[in-house]
Design goal:
With 757 residues, the chain is an all-alpha fold. The protein is built from 28 helices and five strands. A five-stranded mixed β-sheet has the order 2-1-3-5-4, with helices on both faces. Helix 6 runs parallel beside helix 9 and helix 7 crosses helix 19. The protein is globular and about 95 Å long.
């Protein structure tokens, strides 16, 4: 206890010292990467932004995280992050940047927390380098600049880590409870993904605490029970509430939060079976190649000029979306093929793996000479914690059947921690001529530079040969010179070591800035010269904000002529629907247009976006825009349609109904009016039956229906009934005619009216 008390006194004394001046540039770097130009993203991920708009309107919508103001269906995630976004929007007003701000601040907070966590044990320079590595890990700012959940999730888990470390230092059980309760809070952000860190928490507490085994088991059991109670608290309340008193739980098949947590957002991510009907999302490679070919044709037809068309054809070739093992080396959603070297494959390596070789060398150095039975130093114990975080998460991403590139932010904290701690440790071993361990520093520099050359090589056409050759040449030269000077005592080696760190961080820094330089994607965020596409293809050639991102979902009521790909991309009624996006799904691993949207032959994104086609406003075409409308659909609604629906509304609760969130979200965002997404995000949730719909119509809750394409599984009967029992509204009354300048796929939807007595 005396030792513990001395550590507490030391901590209090250190807190009184002046702030580390090196934190100032670190904070400025993190602020620039996470905050600069977020105000240009007008609607962010529209699926989630529409939910915030709805949650602002009532506590009922706020508590359940309702997608629509009418409280019909929720989004596909638990509510904590969206509660925070809604509070931000309430304070600062409803804007794209106000819903992004909490995640941007969380990204900055993660940088500072990592500094604090690493500095105390490994030294101030280790903390500085770890914080810098975290800030410059490309996927970190890419995700933090959106209203997706993962940045806030990582920040929350780092807060839990700080609590756990404090629990060990102070030997106070209250901090253990707080740490595990915080993981429970994180569960209510993104469900089972929060539990990825549990091996690290259990291993570290068992190894690091100097109490009896009986107390260890007792404390961990109690903390785990508390964590589970916090985790399922919201789910139990929701599932215990009568279904007619709350929204349907979006993307579940049984209207249950627990099913959503352990199925759709849980085990199915590992198995890759994100089919809402239980079928695998995998399909024959030939079918996938046909789909990709159709995408290529459609994308090339939708370009604004010959230059853009050429780049889109190249992009489509490199973006064939196939399930792992389907023949495309980039894998499904550009996440590579499962295997031990998956994190080094294109599409993942440039998001997270820039420093992985150096981290591996650092792990070897930090654990060199450690005996299994101990005793362990504080450095070794905390190194074990970061290793127990890194390995299980890395294994998951190496074998998982379905995830997106931005999930990789879960690997950023342990990689950055090892980069910082390892840089100091390897440098000390090098300076002390510590036998074979003194070779770890030049070895780590050489292999890391080699990997970075490999990562950059597919982008030679966009970034040029110079940076690739520069990193490779400087990495080799610095590693060799350090090896030659290993036995010499002079100041040159200090400069060489610092130069090596600069070289290894130069290209990650550039990659981290690409969402600012090229524009980002708020639905599937990623970093790189292709960051605006979010799919790992060639860089965007967009010269203005309207050409970047998955913009261009055509609003209901816009029309032009080409819809030939509609039947190719739409699944037959009752088919399974797998390979889902965050907040949504695609069919059998393909990129699929939403049923009920005006997008034909295009891939559906979270929030219902389409790929590589920008639609001007259906009411007025604009050649440029100061705001980046990357929410997955055109930010402008069809004003003629809106005017018609508003004028002819006779007290109905819903402005109109459509099959999924794609057509609904922009109208919710722009007007705040209830719009019913009958089948939830993807249109395949079994929410509505014909009898339920009849009852709603008789009660005067809805009478207008905007439909396009074919119905998805679980909706075909409803759609068939609507078409058979409705009056089609002539397009001249609600369709915009100013569509001659539109690009990309056309809208071929139909507006129906039903009134039952």
């Amino acid at each position: 206890m005396k030792h513990m008390n001395s550590e507490v006194k030391e901590e209090r004394t250190s807190n009184k010292k002046r702030i580390d001046l090196f934190l100032v540039p670190l904070v400025l770097i993190a602020a620039f990467l996470n905050l600069f130009k977020i105000w240009t993203d007008e609607y962010a991920n529209a699926y989630y932004t529409a939910a915030v708009k709805s949650m602002l309107q009532s506590f009922h919508n706020f508590f359940y995280a309702s997608f629509d103001p009418g409280g019909y269906v929720t989004i596909d995630k638990p509510p904590v992050v969206f509660w925070i976004q809604t509070i931000s929007a309430k304070i600062f007003g409803f804007h794209g940047w106000s819903v992004i701000l909490p995640q941007a601040l969380a990204g900055m907070g993660s940088v500072l927390l990592l500094y604090v966590l690493v500095k105390r044990t490994f030294g101030v320079w280790a903390g500085r380098f770890a914080a810098l590595a975290m800030a410059l890990t490309p996927i970190v700012p890419a995700v933090s600049r959106t209203n997706n959940i993962d940045s806030m999730l990582v920040f929350t888990l780092l807060v839990a880590t700080w609590m756990l470390f404090r629990a060990v230092r102070t030997a106070k059980f209250g901090w253990v409870l707080a740490a595990f309760a915080m993981i429970g809070v994180a569960f209510n952000m993104k469900m089972l993904q929060a539990y990825m860190v549990l091996p690290a928490f259990y291993v570290f507490y068992v190894v690091a605490t100097k109490i009896t085994w009986k107390k260890k088991i007792s404390f961990l059991t109690t903390a785990t029970v508390l964590m589970l109670a916090v985790s399922v608290s919201w789910a139990v309340v929701v599932d215990s509430t009568s279904a007619d008193k709350r929204p349907y739980m979006g993307s579940s098949q049984t209207n249950s939060v627990l099913e959503l947590a352990f199925g759709y957002n849980g085990i199915n991510r590992l198995t890759g079976n994100t089919s809402v009907t239980g079928s695998s999302h995998k399909q024959p490679a030939q079918t996938q190649q046909q789909t990709a070919s159709s995408e290529t044709k459609q994308n090339s037809n939708s370009s604004a000029d010959s230059s853009q068309s050429s780049n889109q054809r190249k992009s489509s070739s490199s973006q064939k979306m196939q399930a792992p093992g389907g023949g495309n080396q980039n894998g499904m959603f550009n996440t590579g093929n499962p295997g031990p070297f998956r994190l080094f494959q294109k599409g993942l390596s440039d998001q997270i793996s820039w420093l992985l070789p150096f981290v591996i060398f650092s792990i070897v150095g930090l654990f060199a000479g450690v005996k299994f039975k101990g005793p362990y130093t504080t450095k070794q114990k905390e190194s074990l914690f970061w290793l127990a975080w890194l390995l299980p998460v890395a294994v998951f991403f190496s074998i998982a059947g379905f995830f997106h590139q931005y999930y990789l932010i879960m690997l950023a904290p342990p990689i950055a921690a090892f980069a910082g701690a390892g840089a100091v440790a390897l440098w000390s071993m090098y300076k002390q001529h510590n036998g074979w361990k003194s070779w770890l520093l030049p070895g780590g520099i050489l292999t890391t530079a080699a990997l970075q050359v490999y990562i950059m090589s597919p982008y030679v056409s966009s970034i040029g040969v110079a940076p690739i050759a520069g990193v490779g040449a400087l990495g080799v030269i610095l590693a060799l010179v350090l090896a030659v000077h290993k036995q010499r005592e002079n100041s040159l080696t200090n400069y060489l070591g610092a130069a090596a760190m600069v070289v290894l961080l130069a290209m990650p820094a550039y990659w981290a800035m690409t969402p600012i330089i090229y524009g980002g994607n708020s639905m599937l965020p990623s970093a790189g010269p292709d960051s605006s596409s979010g799919m790992g293809g060639p860089p965007s050639t967009a010269t203005n904000s309207k050409q970047s991102g998955f913009n261009g979902m055509q609003p209901p009521g816009s029309s032009s002529g080409n819809s030939s790909l509609n039947n190719q991309m739409q699944p037959p009624s009752g088919s399974s629907n797998g390979g889902q996006m965050p907040g949504g799904s695609s069919n059998n691993g393909q990129m699929q247009p939403p049923s009920g949207s005006s997008n034909s032959g295009e891939m559906q994104m979270p929030g219902g976006s389409s790929n590589n086609s920008q639609m001007p406003n259906s009411s007025s075409s604009k050649s440029s825009s100061s705001k980046r409308k990357s929410g997955g659909m055109n930010a402008e609604v069809n004003k003629k349609l809106l005017n018609y629906l508003t004028k002819n509304n006779t007290g109905e609760k819903y402005l109109f109904a459509t099959t999924d969130s794609t057509s609904a979200a922009p109208y919710i965002i722009k007007t705040g009016e209830p719009v019913m997404a009958m089948g939830g995000f993807s249109g395949s949730d079994p929410i509505l039956t014909v009898s339920k719909l009849k009852a709603m119509i008789k009660k005067g809750e809805v009478k207008y229906f905007y439909l396009s394409g074919m119905g998805k599984g679980g909706q075909s009967d409803v759609i068939t009934w609507i078409k058979e029992n409705s009056k089609e509204i002539p397009s001249s009354k609600w369709q915009s005619t100013s569509s001659s300048s539109q690009q990309g796929p056309s809208g071929n939807g139909t507006l129906y009216e039903i009134t039952l007595k």
